[in-house]
Specification:
heterotrimer, A alpha+beta (713), B alpha/beta (121), C mainly beta (156), A: alpha+beta, five-stranded mixed sheet, 22 helices, 43% helix, B: 121 residues, alpha/beta, Rossmann fold
Chain lengths: 713, 121, 156
């Protein structure tokens, strides 16, 4: 990666951190507003976050981002100065501005332009609040100034300057430094050096003011300098040499050649400064937006002297390296299992010392695996912060007032899982605000606080991660859910369903309890999509609801995607693995429970439900003739369309954690197969994708057929 | 011996940019991530020039300048202020607290290097 | 059709092996290792010439019965068979052959166009032939014998 690409990457990483800090800070200010006392340092920190984003963005030419950050920063600056007292309305705009800033950062990262009028609307709102015009000290002026403060000093002046005045000018410069010039670290020699770069210089010094040695104050200044300069540069450029020492000396610049420039340089000098800027503008702007150029040769590679000490000592590591490590540790665990089996086969396992060493080896391997997995783990905090925004937006759209609370947001989960949780969680949160919370009036009528609460929490529970979305709304309206499900033919009218079964109807495809399609949830996705997304991550979703009190949806997830808990089964002589998360239960059917339906299809009745059977041996082509189902074991799995299937296998060997190996790299996708794994004996076993298997191979059974069958039997 | 530059900025991005630009200019660079960190590193590193940001946690750029100017050993040390603000009042304030000059972010590599060369002996 | 990295160099080294009763060879640059046959895990819905997948030091590697792939009589794998592990791009694939004969150096100029006598099926997989005193070596164009991914098979 080139240095500039690397710095760009650093910038966006830093932006993420700054945006997180910004969100945190704004919430602290919210709290302060509620408590009646806002901490000044918090406002300052919030200001700095936006300010730093702006600073970096300018270097990468992200003009939209710079412009917006500047407007936002102006408001925060006024707040910092105490001229603007934050209240709820101000904070609402600030939160929205933070959201938009985050969008702009994302757009910048993807090198796309953000469409829509959100930015313009917010800029208008911000300037109303800030009371300062966006243009004072604005980004436009900055980019002008960015060039100007150094333009005259530039070693290689761009060609653009030739148009101004190619003729040579003679200047006479009188300079009487004051003591402050020296105490600020400046020196006449620096100035002379710059002048020499502009042209021909003659210098004389008047030392007449120099006192006797005894009276001399070595921090004071006593010399008067007279400098004759012949240059092609304009007077403004000459003047700019002295920009740093302006006010620290008496300075008189006179053009001695009236023909070269209109006279009166001395008097008009001060007016000559700023108005000259537009001229330079064109030349300096490209410089301003240009990313830092990579300098060849002299770069000294990674520095050691510059090693920074952060608050927490961390290293940034390429994710590929971590994944490779995880893979290798996976191998180690498998290898250990192979070794154990070999030693067992050799009949040596009853040798005490060998058994002890092996057990230690096993523990070590597991410990290493867990530690390495932890490297990929990240706190769910950024994910939760994103959800704060979803709550805000959803509340605004539905006209409800919702407070968002989080718990244990420092809980760490695998990076990939966090990334893939964004969509399902977004949907659940929207759903909780939209359907979970009652309207303001209903809440007041029910004697609840008019502001609803959405709570998002994370926790580790017995080797898995539990994420919960709760609302304090009215709870699931079960009669209504049941009515809709019946109308839509999802359940038979006379079905007797338990409360939890009714609640789970929400996860059936196409189910929507909203009378009219609302802005929020009516986006063509139902909770069934949430459920299948979670299942793809090896997780499960649960729903709990208490009428009048609220609803809690909980997601249980594995800690990592690199391993899964599998049931090792025999499928016509081939060893295969079924993810345990997919299995609802296992059963050995009695002959009387199995019925044939049509020529090819068998169903098993499980507690009065008829579940179609899929013989995996046949489906995967491992045997041509179906076996007698009554001799087999059935694994009951639930598909994301709400239907259940029974996967028939010859026998169950074992339950264990397996390391997931992709098939795609060297071969390609195999229908019905999610991935492969390596067993303790070193052989490969395929991991079944029950979902896909059911969809591709399951017998197509009309629900009405089943109902009919039910009546007959 | 190459010119030693102490660069103070709370933004990692800007620090990396400075590091990259200054190293390629042949300077010996030490980075500090806020004013206090910078002042702490000053004594040991003994730089020929300090570049500092203004807006920083713990101690801002003005604090850095004042701290440096208060120390006799460093009172002639050139200090460049690094700022996104081009507002005149900020420059004046920097000047008043004893800064040698300023650089407006985003900076141009060559100009930055040229300026440092000119104000270091 | 030959690999560009190889064709620039007129001198090539080839691994020669027997499949059925014919002699074939592939560029040695493609060959990662040669190992004995071990039973493979069957891949459902795979083309008949894909024998399954094996564990190659933690990687899942598909095994192609080269005889079946080239349109010859399918092999009945036994421990005397040999698997040639080849790396093509990012893909690692094993080829089941009867036996590896030797490694020989040839000049690219020695590779002649495939004569018409060869069967149509075989010809599609052959880059050219090398005729030595006692035998005719068919140079396999390895990209053409890779297993076709399932999805494309399904599309048919």
């Amino acid at each position: 990666m080139s240095a500039s690409a690397e710095i760009r990457q650093t910038f966006f990483q830093e932006c993420d951190e700054l945006l997180e800090a910004l969100d945190d800070g704004l919430y602290e200010i919210d709290q302060g507003v509620a408590d009646g006392e806002v901490d000044a340092e918090t406002v300052n920190a919030v200001f700095r976050s936006v300010h730093s984003i702006k600073g970096g963005a300018a270097a990468f030419g992200l003009d939209d981002l710079v412009h917006f950050a500047h407007q936002f920063e102006t408001v925060l600056d006024v707040m910092r100065d105490g001229q603007l007292v934050p209240n709820e309305d101000v904070m609402k705009v600030c939160h929205r501005a933070a959201d938009h800033l985050s969008d702009l950062v994302a757009a910048g990262r993807d090198e796309r332009v953000l469409e829509g009028s959100t930015g313009a609307d917010l800029i208008k709102k911000l300037s109303e609040i800030g009371g300062r015009e966006a243009t004072t000290g604005s980004s436009e002026q900055q980019s002008v100034d960015a060039g100007v403060s150094f333009q005259p000093l530039g070693l290689s002046l761009p060609m653009d300057f030739t148009f101004e005045e190619p003729a040579e000018n003679d200047f006479s410069i009188q300079l009487i430094p004051s003591a402050s010039l020296y105490s600020s670290g400046n020196d006449v020699s620096f100035l002379l050096r710059e002048l020499i770069e502009l042209g021909e210089v003659k210098v004389s010094v008047d030392t007449s003011e120099l006192p006797d040695f005894d009276e001399m104050d070595c921090s004071d200044a006593y010399f008067k300098w007279s400098i004759d300069l012949r240059t092609t540069e304009a007077a403004s450029s000459v003047r700019d040499v002295f920009e740093f020492v302006d006010g620290m000396c008496e300075l008189d610049v006179t053009s001695r050649e009236p023909s070269a420039k209109p006279s009166g340089e001395t008097e008009e000098e001060d007016d000559d400064g700023p108005p000259a800027l537009p001229l330079l503008n064109g030349a300096s702007e490209p410089d301003a937006v240009e990313p830092p150029r990579q300098q060849s040769g002299r770069s000294e590679g990674k520095d050691k002297t510059g090693a920074q000490s952060g608050p927490k000592a961390t290293v940034r590591v390429n994710l590929d390296l971590v994944d490779r490590l995880i893979n290798m540790v996976g191998e180690l665990v498998i290898n250990q299992a192979v070794l154990t089996q070999c030693i067992d086969d050799a009949g040596l396992l009853d040798r005490g010392d060998l058994a002890t060493s092996l057990a230690e080896f096993k523990n070590l391997a597991r410990d290493i695996q867990e530690s390495v997995m932890a490297i990929r783990a990240q706190s769910v905090k950024p994910l939760f912060q994103r959800m704060a925004r979803i709550v805000r937006e959803a509340a605004e759209l539905s006209g409800k007032d919702a407070d968002f609370q989080t718990e244990e947001e420092t809980t760490e989960v695998d990076k990939t899982i966090i990334e893939r949780l964004v969509d399902p969680l977004t949907h659940m949160i929207r759903n909780a605000v939209d359907h979970g919370l009652e309207s303001r009036d209903d809440r007041i009528a029910a004697g609840k606080p008019d502001q609803g609460t959405i709570m998002l929490s994370a926790a580790h529970r017995s080797g898995r991660v539990l994420i919960e979305v709760s609302d304090d709304g009215a709870g699931i309206n079960r009669p209504k859910v049941l009515k809709i499900a019946t109308e839509k033919g999802l359940v038979s009218p006379d079905a007797q369903l338990k409360d939890s079964e009714i609640d789970n109807l929400l996860f059936m495809p196409g189910f929507s309890t909203a009378d009219k399609v609302s802005n929020l949830s009516g986006r063509g996705v139902g909770m069934d999509v949430v459920k299948s997304a979670i299942q793809k991550l090896g997780g499960r979703v649960n729903i709990q609801s208490t009428p009048g009190k609220g609803t809690t949806m909980s997601i249980s997830l594995p800690l990592t995607l690199a391993v899964l808990d599998g049931m090792v089964v025999d499928v016509a002589g081939q060893t295969m693995v079924v993810p345990i998360t997919a299995i609802v239960e296992t059963l050995r059917p009695k002959a009387g429970d199995i019925h044939r339906l049509g020529a090819e299809t068998s169903v098993v009745s499980v507690r009065n439900n008829l579940v179609p059977i899929i013989d995996l041996g046949v489906v995967f082509g491992h045997r041509s003739q179906p076996m007698a189902i009554s001799d087999m074991v059935l694994l009951l799995v639930e598909s994301d369309n709400g239907t259940s299937w029974a996967l028939a296998v010859d026998q169950i060997f074992d339950q264990r954690q397996v390391v997931i190996k992709g098939l795609e790299t060297n071969y390609g996708h195999v229908p019905g197969v999610a991935a492969a794994t390596i067993l303790g004996d070193g052989n490969i076993a395929l991991i079944i994708d029950p979902e896909e298997t059911a969809h591709r191979n399951g017998p197509v059974i009309d629900q009405r057929d089943l109902a009919l069958f039910d009546e007959v039997s | 011996m190459s010119t030693k530059v102490l660069a103070i900025d709370d933004s990692r991005t800007i620090r990396e940019m400075l590091k990259h630009t200054l190293s390629s200019g042949g300077f010996d660079v030490l980075l500090a991530e806020d004013g206090l960190d910078g002042v702490e590193k000053l004594e040991n590193f003994n730089p020929d020039l300090v570049i500092t940001d203004i807006n920083m946690p713990r101690m801002d750029g003005f604090g850095v300048i004042e701290a440096i100017r208060r120390t006799e050993k460093f009172n002639g040390l050139p200090i460049l202020v690094l700022t996104t603000e081009s507002a005149q009042e900020l420059k004046e304030r920097a000047k008043k607290s004893g800064a040698t000059g300023w650089i407006v972010k985003p900076f141009d590599d060559e100009k930055l290097i040229g300026t440092i060369r000119r104000i270091t002996v | 059709m030959s690999d560009p990295a190889v064709s620039n160099n007129s001198l090539r080294e080839l691994v020669t092996f027997r499949v059925g009763d014919q002699d074939f060879c592939i560029d040695i640059m493609m060959v990662r290792e040669i190992r004995g046959w071990t039973p493979a895990t069957l891949l459902p819905h795979a083309p008949s010439y894909v024998l399954g997948v094996i564990n190659l030091r933690g990687s899942v590697v598909p095994i192609v019965d080269l005889a079946a792939r080239l349109g010859l009589a399918p092999s009945v794998p036994d421990p005397r068979h040999v698997i040639v592990i080849a790396v093509v791009g990012t893909q690692t694939v094993g080829f089941l052959v009867n036996a590896v004969s030797d490694i020989m150096g040839i000049d690219q100029a020695d590779v002649q166009p495939t004569p018409d006598v060869t069967s149509e099926v075989t010809r599609a997989f052959i880059e050219g032939v090398i005729v030595t005193d006692e035998r005719m070596l068919r140079v396999i164009d390895i990209k053409t014998v890779l297993p076709k991914c399932m999805e494309s098979e399904d599309a048919q």
